[in-house]
Amino acid sequence: MAMASLASNLSFLASSLKLVDSVGSRSSMHNGVQTVAMTAGKQQRSRAGGPMKVVMMAKREQELVDIRKMSQEEINETVIDLKGELFLLRTKKATRQEYKSSEFRRMRKQIARMLTVRREREIEQGITMRESRKLDRKWKKSIVPRPPPSYAATLAEQAKK
Ligand SMILES: *[C@@H]1O[C@H](CO)[C@@H](O)[C@H](O)[C@H]1NC(C)=O
Where are the domains of the chain? Predict the structure, then answer.
């Protein structure tokens, strides 16, 4: 397999999940993942509503806000994809291919945030930790294995050639 194209696909995924954009604070959807443009470094918290005020939420808060807009199904699917990407990243590391080490932390954090929101919703429904683990095991069994998005893109690319 062409390592260069695999690497470029991974960096595409990285940028599509990235939270930093050159322009202000816009948001958009990629693959069901809402990305938000933020100015890095600004951790200023601010309540929405002040006229003419540029609201700059902490990155973590903004991400949580965006994840909360997602449906349960979208969250579950995104968790599957992100775990797949993490697996791919680990594979690259193990086989000494090019990879971006900062992606590990970012993806793990993103997965953790998704799971946090999922658990929050369960708590609202009065689902105990014990029941939650049981539901999670059941859900995991129901997952049909699939290639992570960046790898699927690589395969599609190669099929064209
Ligand atoms: C999402 O995953 C949880 C497992 O934590 C499961 O209980 C729930 O039914 C799943 N929801 C959907 C819509 O797949």
Answer: 19-58, 70-161
